Backbone:
């Protein structure tokens, strides 16, 4: 039986990483977490993933810029952006980058699970 594809999560807040990892695992997803964009870029197995959840405001990094770096290197995974500091400019930049969802912290468990389940089911 083939291994299930995983979700990659990048957030510089350890408690957010822990909470999202726990939630997604409870719903049957494999999850790999990273505390920075640099750590994600060092991850060699993007072929094993079906989705990336990116915090927009990482320490000294932009999740939106990270999204563009991934695309520029040929990684075209669907992205869900999360942010604790919503603004029209961030929302517009996230949507223009091609995200499938934009969530403002704190967000409900359901608001994170729904787009991930749609991806898994091929609904996007």
Residues:
């Amino acid at each position: 039986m083939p291994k299930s594809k995983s979700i990659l999560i990048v957030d510089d807040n350890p408690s957010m990483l822990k909470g999202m990892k726990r939630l997604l695992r409870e719903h049957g997803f494999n999850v790999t977490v990273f505390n920075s964009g640099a750590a994600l870029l060092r991850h060699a197995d993007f072929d094993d993933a079906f989705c990336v959840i990116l915090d927009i405001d990482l320490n000294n990094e932009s999740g939106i810029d990270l999204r563009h770096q991934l695309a520029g290197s040929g990684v075209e995974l669907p992205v869900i952006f999360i942010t604790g500091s919503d603004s029209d400019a961030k929302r517009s930049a996230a949507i223009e980058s091609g995200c499938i969802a934009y969530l403002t912290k704190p967000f409900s468990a359901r608001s994170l699970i729904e787009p991930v389940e749609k991806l898994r089911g091929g609904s996007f």
